Amino acid sequence: MRALAANIEEVFREAAARWTLIAYFALSSLFILLFAVAVNLDVVNGALAGAKIFGQSVHMGRQSVDLDRLVLGFESGFAGFLYVVGTFLAIFATAHLVPRLMEKGTVDLYLSRPVGRVPLLLSRYVGGLLLSASNVVYLLGAMWLLVIWKTRLVHPRFFLAAGIILFGIAALMAFAFLIGTLTSSTAVSIMATFAVFFLSAILANHDRIAAALSAEWAAALVQGLYWVFPKTAQLGAAVVALVMGDEGPRRMRDALTLQPFVTTGLFGAVSLTLACLRFRRKDF
Amino acid sequence: MSAAIEVRGLRKDYRAGLGGREVKALSGIDLAVQPGELFGLLGPNGAGKTTTVKILLGLTHATAGSASLLGKPVGDPESRRRVGYLPEGHRFPGYLTARQTLSIFGRMSGVPSRTLAPRIKDLLSRVKLSDWVDVKVKRFSKGMTQRLGLAAALVHDPEVLLLDEPTDGVDPVGRREIRDLLKAEAAKGRAILLNSHLLSEIELTCDRVAVLRSGRVAAMGTIEELTKRNEEKSSSNGYRFVASPLSEELIADFRALGAGAERVNGHVRLTARNVAHLNQLVDATRARGALLTELTPEKSTLEDVFVDLVRAADPASADPSSPSKKSEDD
């Protein structure tokens, strides 16, 4: 356990030494600060009677706006935005973890310690996941607290959306680890993972794509890929649906089914298992 | 007493590239290193030294045979619990300081944090890095990184040390300090396997050596045993001879008396048939009115042993001045 904790600490120290992560935290902090300073809301009897952004009054007409709906709209939009951006940044910030470990002159230092290869790889995976979680929780948590402070409205589901975001990141990071063990290349890991993210989003329309294809085998391939790949688009919709709750459109609520979670989880588990098998058998 | 490092019939085959030819990196190696022993592993490039060390550390899997560290098979990560390793061309994370490096790698070897702090201080002092404790590794010179690597190999107080080119990039004073440190560690009962191209370092440091050639042990023994064996194989008795004056006429006299005589940088390399013949050459020196100032028997060095073993396997690399090679060239 001590050895694995040391390995996780090393992941964090490495992250702290990398400018990408510092830039991510700095940008997140700037965004939070801007929101905290710039937005001033005038709430009367639970409704938005007036708003100021950067000191300028926002024209609201004569009628007041339902604050709860407005805030939910902002929160769901922000959570959806963070799902995409957070996932991209998390992959970008952690894809190097395996290729760097496998570098000549580095891997010897780690594998010569009394730690099994699988626990070593998994500890780096956990370290990467904790790193991504700290970023997502920081941004989402800070925004959640700011919204509570500004509006006195508490929507726990907004904060809980971090769970779905991290679930998606975990599955894709497992795939990035698999590519890392196969190619030892950070660039290939990032490109392949982003390709899966976009391809999966396109495959959300698998029925329509398959119907448009003339060859039967091509249609079967599209359907097969849909079931194999993680459901990135459905997970994004699930994030928004979770935050909106009953206020959201029916189409969104329907996205909150178990299927995307099960297949995405399986994709991640299989990727991580294959990564462990490859790493365990590899000669250095 | 059971061996700290034991290798039996170790074989490693691999394919060079996809569908490429099969390479036999190791073809059945047997060796054992006892506690307190400084053992040198020598061999030309591609002889299998690094493969042997990598199998011992579980970095590479053996095709056949067995290897164990302190009685535990190398496939078990626990076999590395009491083993320190310094790889060649190691790359510690540049963003860590010397203290952080030893702390992380110490804990990865299972050392509790509370015992690490004093040990790190002591180790960095022993490798002369006390003034660089909180400096990032990326600012270190090659020699300093090598010293840090040695400290990292010792951080968990191991019983076995596997060191790959430990003095690489270290200045002569530093080399001597590392040699002294290794001798002190061996005196504490640690088994040390040293893998180096610097034959003089091995000669000065190791108790026993094994010379690998084409994946096999070509020779093994103490340095004295190996050099003596080499001298016995050699038919000529060479001497370093210095006299004043060392004239061309004197050298011509030696040749006329049937000795080999070759002027080399202010001295003569003299080859006599036996002691009586040598005394005859000394008499000839006096007869010429010259004063004998130095006469030293030439000893076979580890380098001679190494070169002879490598050449024995590869006649093409033999001395171009040798008769067989000459006739071929002619």
What does this structure look like?
The complex is a heterodimer of chains A (284) and B (330). Chain A is built from 13 helices and four strands. Chain A is of the alpha+beta class. Chain A has one domain (67-281). In chain A, strands 1, 2, 3 and 4 form a four-stranded antiparallel beta sheet that branches. The radius of gyration of chain A is 22 Å and the shape is globular. Chain B is α/β, with parallel strands linked by helices and 330 residues long. Chain B folds into two domains: 5-228, Rossmann fold (3-Layer(aba) Sandwich); 235-297, 2-Layer Sandwich (Alpha-Beta Plaits). Chain B is built from eleven helices and 14 strands. Chain B has helices spanning 49-56, 98-108, 113-126, 142-154, 172-187, 199-205, 223-233, 248-256, 275-287, 302-313, 323-329; strands spanning 5-15, 22-33, 38-42, 64-69, 72-73, 83-86, 160-164, 191-195, 208-213, 216-222, 237-244, 260-264, 267-272, 291-297. Chain B has a six-stranded mixed beta sheet with strand order 6-7-8-3-9-10, with helices on both faces. In chain B, helix 7 (223-233) packs across helix 10 (302-313). Chain B is globular, with a radius of gyration of 25 Å. Mean pLDDT of chain B is 86; it is low at 318-330. The chains are: A alpha+beta (284), B alpha/beta (330). The interface between A and B is medium-sized, with 28 and 35 residues.
Amino-to-carboxy terminus distance of chain B = 57 Å
- Which blocks of ≥5 consecutive residues of chain B have pLDDT under 50? 318-330
The arrangement of helices and strands of chain A along the chain is HHEEEEHHHHHHHHHHH
- Helix fraction of chain A by DSSP (H/I, runs of at least 4): over 70%
Low-pLDDT regions of chain A: none
* Mean pLDDT over all positions of chain B: 86
Number of strands of chain B: 14
CATH top level of the largest domain in chain B is: Alpha Beta
Largest sheet strand order of chain B: 6-7-8-3-9-10
The largest β sheet of chain B comes out as: 6 strands, mixed
Number of beta-strand segments of chain A: 4
Tell me the Rg of chain B in angstroms.
25 Å
Proportion of residues in helical segments of chain B = 25-40%
Structural class of chain B: alpha/beta
Number of domains of chain B: 2
Q: Give me the CATH fold name of the largest domain in chain B.
A: Rossmann fold
